[in-house]
From TrEMBL:
The protein's name in its UniProt record: AAA family ATPase
Top-level lineage group: Bacteria
Classification of source organism: Bacteria, Pseudomonadati, Pseudomonadota, Gammaproteobacteria, Alteromonadales
Limits of the ChlI/MoxR AAA lid domain: 230-289
All residue ranges annotated as the ATPase AAA-3 domain in the record: 35-165
Pfam families: AAA_3, AAA_lid_2
Amino acid sequence: MDDINQQIIDKISSLVLGKEDPIKLSLCCLLAKGHLLIEDLPGMGKTTLSHALAAVVGLSFSRIQFTSDLLPADIVGVSIFKADIHEFNFHPGPIFNQVILADEINRASPKTQSALLEAMAENQVSVDGTTHSLPSPFFVIATQNPLHQSGTYPLPESQLDRFLMRISIGYPPHSAELDMLKKTQSPSINEIDFACIDKQQLQNLQQQVTQIHASDELLNYILELVNLSRQSSEFPFALSPRASQSILQAAKAWAFIEGRQFVTADDVQAIFPAVTEHRLAPAATHLGANNQNELNYSHKLLSAINPV
């Protein structure tokens, strides 16, 4: 693994104990220029992971607490009339930061959730007919409570599809939770020299990811997986061309984190569940590997197609 990638993972792991795989997937999502959805029970470290990821790459961070009374203007901003100059001035909302934590996104109404759609797809927002560009890089991390909990609204398929990955953190291993309990006071992000890189270095890393080589055989492997989801009635939803692109983006980022300049079938398999499960079964409740009843349509696809 490349030194800088390992340094980033180690820094975050000092706060989110015993969870290297979710941390690697989160970094992979950022390097692939995607957006991340984290679904898990309250108190599992979703917010800590999000804040730590922003801090470690030196990006500005804003947390938006999604509640039932949150309005779209509370996210994107509002135009206010100034009587002295007889014109409207735009006051940007918290979305004008490089990393946005949309906390408990499924507790807000669908109308408010949709305020993120244009931002996530086009890195811009439109207010009163005027388009405003968002900072670059722009990375949304949304946390979601399981759908069986009270006061939640399911995310529509069109919005789920905007997330490159959906992951869960899960319960920590016994040794990590024991270490947590032994600490009289956990270190905060502000108390640690956290930034490993700056914005320019991050953008350079993201550019390097796009240069990772994927062979024709590897691309055909991805297409076989995608086409099976379209041809078999076993899967509730088929994978779209955007999903194909997302699989390739994420696989390139995973290969880059592993220190290789080419993508292998193992890279595709490592990221495939996180990239596709929320697209194959959007209405399913996802609680990660700790939930034995998880549908795992992505694993059915992987087991049906022989890798290159």
